[in-house]
Each structure stands twice: as structure tokens, then as C-alpha cells.
Design goal:
Radius of gyration: 27 Å
Largest sheet: none
Helix content: over 70%
Strand content: under 5%
Distance between the termini: 83 Å
Number of domains: 2
Number of strands: 0
Structural class: mainly alpha
Order of helices and strands: HHHHH
Length: 119
Amino acid sequence: MSNFLKNKDTLTLKDYQDYVLAKSYEKLYNRSIKANEEQKQLYEQNKFYNLSLKQIGINFYEKMITILNEITLFFDENNSKNQSVGNLVNIFLKDDRMVYVGIFFVLLSIILFFVDLSK
């Protein structure tokens, strides 16, 4: 690459190809660094403790619907096959669903507490 810039009189096709290749690799590297930084920022913004209550509510609703859909598919597809408890538990523990399942159980316990108090 430095030969290409310094010795313009004795350029070969190989030097030019090396220079173009190096420049394209440099652009690709810079783009990948920038994309990685954007992904890190997006990941940090979407962590549970960085979310607003409104976003937690929206995520809770979406996760519960997804869990219900997957449970329905699990029992529908595995009707004749051997059903594994581990696969059923994995539905609740995928990604960050565990946090929202915990919120669901807390809300359910509060509702049951008030139902028990009203007796």
C-alpha cells in the first residue's frame, strides 16, 4: 500500500489491486466497528433496568402472548410424541422472558391475595 502512494512511476497491477483491496478492507472494518458500537448501545438501551414502565408493560404483553403461542404449539405438535418437561420449561426461560414470567407471578399472587381477603 505504501509502495502505491510513494512510487507512482513504477506501479504494477498487483500494487493497485493490493491498494484497492486494503482500502476496501479498511472500509469494511470501520463499518463493522460502527455497527458493533450501535449494537452495543441498542443492547444497553434495551436492558430491563433501563426501560420505562410503559416499555416494560408493552414488553410484558408481547412476551406473555409469545409464551402462550409457544405453549399452544408445544402441546399441539407434541400430542402424539413424548413431551419433555425440559422443552416446556425452556419456553418460559428463553431470552429475557424469565423477568416477565416473574412479574406475572407477582401480579398473580397480588390478585390471589386480594381475592383471599375478600372472602
